[in-house]
TrEMBL record:
Taxonomic source organism: Gramella jeungdoensis
Keywords for the protein's UniProt record, in alphabetical order: Membrane, Signal, Transmembrane, Transmembrane helix
Transmembrane segments: 85-104
Residues annotated as signal peptide: 1-19
InterPro entries: TPR-like_helical_dom_sf, TPR_rpt
Tagged with keyword Signal: yes
Protein origin, superkingdom: Bacteria
Protein name: Tetratricopeptide repeat protein
Lineage: Bacteria, Pseudomonadati, Bacteroidota, Flavobacteriia, Flavobacteriales
Length: 281
């Protein structure tokens, strides 16, 4: 319902504001819908958190009910079995007394020994079964908790990527990429985009180190080689830059069109091998 209300608000509010402020239309500098987009993103995040809390409560309740039900079944089955044993033993004892095979004292002793053995065997058997059930429930609860954590981390990372796309300041983008890397330290995409942003502000050495880290984690990620080539080009290491460009193009054909537009390759424009790569594009 909240999503429908927000969607209708996005559609209606610009017309209302336009009709009320027609004489001030020339003074409007920024789009009117930006606060509504931010509000929509915040509502989506709030909704995801509420769903996660609800899922956690449901899982906890189901685990408790399953454990209680297993214990009740085990106790009920044990009680029923013991009662049946008592009935059988009582009938057998009565028969033995009537036939005169043993004295009453011998029968009592024998019954006590047999009863203790049976009860001990049944108790051990059900203890093992309960332990197996507890182990399975513990494993399942761990899987559920890990899944919830992964969902929460994924939602947080997704919201941070959305924020990074809306930011115009390179410094703010770097801070957002750092938040993503705090949640997921091996996120090579965040490393690569951070390296690209660092190149924009002139931190070439830092960008080179980040590109190397990304390649160490995934040596088949084309954009990592591309960003490292940009860093090498800025440092005027043309041989290394051309080698990484070739690797990036081998891993991703779509980067071929970017050779003409990449501004960090300005130092390579007079290089014969670079011109040869452009001619093949």
């Amino acid at each position: 319902m909240s999503k429908l209300f927000l969607a209708l608000t996005f559609l209606i509010m610009p017309f209302v504001l336009f009709s009320k402020n027609t004489n001030k239309a020339d003074t409007i500098q920024e789009p009117l819908f930006k606060p509504f987009i931010e509000r929509y993103i915040l509502d989506e995040i709030k909704s995801l958190r509420q769903e996660n809390l609800s899922l956690r409560a449901q899982v906890t309740k189901q685990i408790s009910e399953a454990k209680l039900e297993s214990s009740d079944r085990a106790i009920e089955y044990t009680t029923s079995t013991i009662n049946n044993i008592f009935y059988i033993i009582t009938a057998a004892a009565s028969l033995l007394v009537l036939l005169g095979w043993r004295s009453l004292n011998d029968i009592k002793k024998s019954l006590k020994i047999d009863m203790s053995k049976k009860i001990q065997t049944l108790t051990l058997d059900y203890e093992k079964r309960l332990q197996q059930i507890e182990v399975k429930m513990t494993e399942r609860s761990k899987v559920i908790i890990e899944t919830q954590q992964n969902i929460t981390e994924t939602n947080s990372i997704h919201s941070l990527w959305l924020r990074a796309g809306l930011e115009k300041s390179d410094e703010d983008k770097i801070l957002i990429y750092d938040e993503i890397l705090n949640i997921k330290p091996n996120d090579i995409e965040a490393m690569t985009y951070k390296a690209d942003t660092l190149l924009e502000i002139g931190e070439v050495r830092w960008a080179l180190n980040l590109s190397n880290s990304a390649i160490e984690h995934d040596d088949e990620y084309a954009l990592a080689y591309w960003q490292r080539a940009c860093a090498y080009a800025k440092l005027d290491k043309q041989d290394e830059a051309l080698k990484d460009i070739k690797t990036a193009l081998e891993l991703s054909d779509t980067l071929q069109d970017e050779l003409h537009n990449e501004k960090h390759f300005e130092n390579l424009h007079n290089n014969k091998l670079f011109k040869l790569l452009i001619s093949h594009s």
